[in-house]
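REQUEST FORM: STRUCTURE PREDICTION
Request ID: SP-0412
Submitted by: Lab K.M.
Chain count: 1
Length (residues): 125
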Amino acid sequence: MKTYTKTHSSKKVAEIHLDKIKKRGGKAGMKPVKGGFQIEYSFPEKKEKKDIKQTKKKRYDILSPDGFSIRIGVEPFKTREEGVKYFEKWKKRFEKQGYYSSNTGRIELEDLEDYCEFVDVEFNQ
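STATUS: Completed
RESULT:
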């Protein structure tokens, strides 16, 4: 742990600096010296930061034939199977009209799965 020193000519400024050090988790002490007030301070060793990739969890999503997620108010799927179950539920929304209306035209419901894309997404938690 490295120790630092700083001398301030004003006691008020030295006290403000001391408070800031303590708020950041440092250890500090102040003593009067010729020409002002000296603060001796140090901070604990920083812990290694986790690799960002370690905090991201692998999740899945399904894109419609038009390239949009089929999820409505639902977090990305934890498993592919969970996504397939949701897809079947989503597909039922179009049973009454008998087809899915895409930007490129009508898609029969039995063919809809072939036009959708199952993708991996990174999900922060």
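NOTES: Helices lie at 11-23, 52-55, 80-91, 112-115.
Reviewed by: T.R.
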